Amino acid sequence: MRLWLTLLPVAIAATGIAWWLTAPATVDASQIVALDGDATQGEAVFHASGCASCHHAENAENDTVLSGGQGFASGFGTFYAPNISPHPEAGIGDWSVADFAGAVRLGVSPDGAHLYPAFPYAAYGRMTDQDLVDLWAFMQTLPPDETVNRPHEVGFPFNIRAGLGVWKVLYADRGWVLDVPPELERGRYLVEALGHCGECHTPRNALGALDRSAWMQGAPNPSGSGRIPALTPNSLTWSVEDIAYYLETGFTPDYDSVGGHMAEVVENFSKLPAEDRQAVAAYIKALPAP
User: Could you tell me which residue ranges the Cytochrome c domain spans (predicted)?
Assistant: First the structure.
């Protein structure tokens, strides 16, 4: 009995800590709902964020139909991009802008479930309020699609979503990776937030979190074939103009052309203003050597 009385407070405390660590966060939507979204500006955010690259159907000719279904292999299983078209049942058409903000910034679905970080909400968490509502406004203009979501193929224990709450506490750092002067802030925003470039170009630890100490130093290809190249100055010797031109046309200074998933990144960035591509290039050239 005495042992039980000793262990009971410990058990209660442990339960409370576990609940706190695994409970989904909620977004303060008061400022967001007060803003008016601009769909024209939201289209640029849409392209910079690469929404269509993951959420259009595999081999689809129209990348504005965000029906989902593409599979993304990882060491934890295969994740399938969901339908994020404005369809009210199959997609996110019945969401509010607050629901959207919770998913994009915190990785929490409207019903309170943790989303897997295959969706780069740790990067999108740095998105400004105005860009978020502009993006939402643009997405309302896209065609609805009734394709049903395909469930992820993730085994135990990674199929227990409550554990993602602990992962977020440990690794969902929404602070900026690099301190930069004012003239590089736009490039940092495009690379570290909207473009989420570090998701591919930075190595990960055993739990799938980005190793920020090796920022942009290259990483194994999650598909298991080849390696994503480093963008640090010891590996990438292109000039600012070379990088900006590559992001516009897909052509390298050696007259090679872009391939793989990067082709879609170039397709997205080619639709942005030239000054944005220049800003990204300037940020990349300012990356510290390993």
Answer: 37-143, 182-288
